[in-house]
């Protein structure tokens, strides 16, 4: 025994390294069968796997240029981070973009900007920018709602996001006067900090789920009665990243608490089916919307990604004939984010936002319905200039998901589907969440929203308007290589926007239905 120990203790450190490598080589060649590269190139084959695994970080930090990455490039992320921290978000020396490039967008400025008088609401608060339309007004819902902010937090469930992230977002919207869309996971305790909430549900009916997995109107009524901060209800038909796919919440993210809120089992993948149980065609959907609006008094809308238009046409015809229908329509772009989706869906199914929204708006406008509906847009629209374009095309409000995540610390690691989100935002790991301070992060979301609104107001004034709802299609141009060829939006997308009735910002401020408790003080 002693001789063996003596022999082992005489082996030098590099001898141990050689023994270790020899063991790895034996394992690579003889014991494992799953990796051909390791078998054929023992030891050094591992380098390949390791380099591949750190490739995304290396490219993000060192290789990719400022405008190269997707979904959001470094300049876009940097603008959100700086805005959220109230740091200098300007750039020096002029734009680093090739503004002659194809598809580049220009906003036509006025010779003289809009003049803001001393007692104008924006002189008092540069970030005051409510929605120009009242949701539910046309359909005479009992509790109409004017969102007090044109930028709001898009649907992201507690489950796909961590408790601390939801808490931060909810406290943030309260500070910014915006609303918080719950996403599909039901209303959690972290949505109850007093900010406006839009309750969203999909085919899983989480939070309003009957015993048989269908929809429970009783639960819906109770939920709305118990939580007066719920200002509107959104029925999810589809989302841009995975239309027609239903949802998946990976089992790794289903904790006891989430299981209880959703009414599902701990640790098991939760699948929301592609179809709703509560309705199976367009007329039934309209009845369903009316039933919920009648039972709760709240405005009810639908969220969808756009592809074929036949069923939208049918919806528009029913709305025209019956005078009923959704109070708002949220159009999500194919570029939209998700907690988890197959790449074939995320990359290819449904139209990009500008095409999808343009098609839908045009259809509603031709039927004379565009004034009845509040249009909400989502799909990388959380940047003031892009938002101006969206307003020119007809949106009344913007929803942001990933931009909101970035404002509270998301680093675009793109691992939301693994439960290993390094920033603690899209994970249920208590350890990873521990770094989030909801008080600080809520200030960051609010500051991002305020900066966004301030810059959007400034762009609006530069174009000679008081509110972005006044943007028209021909205020924005898209570059097609030469100015003689560059086309305004109306000629690019072949429609003109219906003018939004707008009198003054002061009128919006005085509105009885203005959200975020503005007029309850
Ligand atoms: C983590 C995460 C979770 C999401 N969960 C939902 C959801 O429950 N329901 C839904 O309709 N959309 C969901 N979405 C889509 C967003 O609400 C939004 O429509 C989309 O990401 C486009 O907005 P963005 O470009 O600002 O991220 C989710 C997106 C993300 C990133």
Topology summary:
Blueprint: H1 2-9, H2 13-31, H3 36-40, H4 44-63, H5 74-84, E1 105-107, H6 121-124, E2 151-153, H7 163-176, E3 179-181, E4 196-201, H8 217-226, E5 230-236, E6 247-249, H9 256-262, E7 270-272, H10 282-296, E8 300-305, H11 310-322, E9 328-332, H12 343-348, H13 353-366, E10 374-378, H14 384-393, E11 397-400, H15 402-407, H16 430-433, H17 438-462, E12 476-478, E13 487-488, H18 489-493, H19 505-510
Parallel strand pairs: 2-11, 3-4, 4-5, 5-8, 8-9, 9-10, 10-11
Antiparallel strand pairs: 1-12, 6-7, 12-13
Helix pairs in contact: 5-17, 7-17, 14-17
Pfam family, one: Glu_synthase
GO molecular function: glutamate synthase activity
InterPro entries: Aldolase_TIM, GltB, Glu_synthdom
Structure notes:
With 521 residues, the protein is an alpha/beta fold. Helix content is 39%, strand content 10%. A hairpin with an 8-residue loop joins strand 12 and strand 13. The longest helix is centred in the C-terminal third of the chain and has 25 residues. The protein is globular and about 95 Å long. 46% of the residues are buried. The protein starts with a helix and ends in an 11-residue tail after the last helix. It has 2 domains: 63 residues, no CATH class; 334 residues, Aldolase class I (TIM Barrel, Alpha-Beta Barrel), CATH 3.20.20.70. Helix 5 crosses helix 17 and helix 7 crosses helix 17. The strands form 3 sheets. Strands 2-11-10-9-8-5-4-3 form an 8-stranded parallel sheet. Bound molecules: flavin mononucleotide (FMN). Flavin mononucleotide binds next to helix 15. One of its GO terms (molecular function) is glutamate synthase activity. Belongs to the glutamate synthase family. Keywords: Membrane, Transmembrane, Transmembrane helix. This is FMN-binding glutamate synthase family protein.
